[in-house]
């Protein structure tokens, strides 16, 4: 079974985010074939949520925890930690997804 892969692209500074922190991120998501399916940058506004509460896919909760402000990570997320066997919108069933996420703020 594939596991979540985390690659730090740019290091951040300050305290690390943890479960229950309210955070703000910019993200872009691709399928493994390179097709972009979503990006907060396209709509020009960051995405805010509370980490570790199940608001986002499990791969995000696991892959973002421990990031510092201005840190950028690439997460390669297997379907079991993403959209599963049913997919979602432009994401087909059982798809591995790739996200680049930048932590903008811990609120």
UniProtKB/TrEMBL annotation:
The protein's GO terms of the molecular function aspect are: peptidyl-prolyl cis-trans isomerase activity
What catalytic activity is recorded?
[protein]-peptidylproline (omega=180) = [protein]-peptidylproline (omega=0)
Q: Which UniProt keywords apply?
A: Isomerase, Rotamase
- Judged by the first EC level, this protein's enzyme class is isomerase
State whether keyword Isomerase applies.
yes
Q: Does the keyword Methyltransferase apply?
A: no
Which residues belong to any copy of the PPIase FKBP-type domain? 20-107
One Pfam family of this chain: FKBP_C
- Which InterPro entries does the entry link to? PPIase_dom_sf (IPR046357), PPIase_FKBP_dom (IPR001179)
The catalytic activity of this protein is classed by the Enzyme Commission as: 5.2.1.8
Give the family, as the similarity comment puts it.
Answer: Belongs to the FKBP-type PPIase family.
Protein name listed in UniProt: Peptidyl-prolyl cis-trans isomerase
């Amino acid at each position: 079974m594939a596991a979540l892969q985390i690659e730090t692209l740019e290091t951040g500074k300050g305290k690390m985010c943890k479960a229950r922190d309210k955070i703000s991120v910019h993200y872009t998501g691709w399928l493994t074939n390179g097709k972009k399916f979503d990006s907060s940058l396209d709509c020009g506004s960051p995405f805010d949520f509370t980490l570790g509460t199940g608001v986002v896919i499990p791969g995000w909760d696991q892959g973002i925890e421990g990031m510092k402000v201005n840190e950028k990570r690439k997460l390669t997320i297997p379907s079991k930690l993403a959209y599963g066997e049913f997919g979602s919108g432009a994401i087909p069933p059982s798809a591995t997804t790739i996200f680049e996420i930048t932590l903008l703020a811990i609120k």
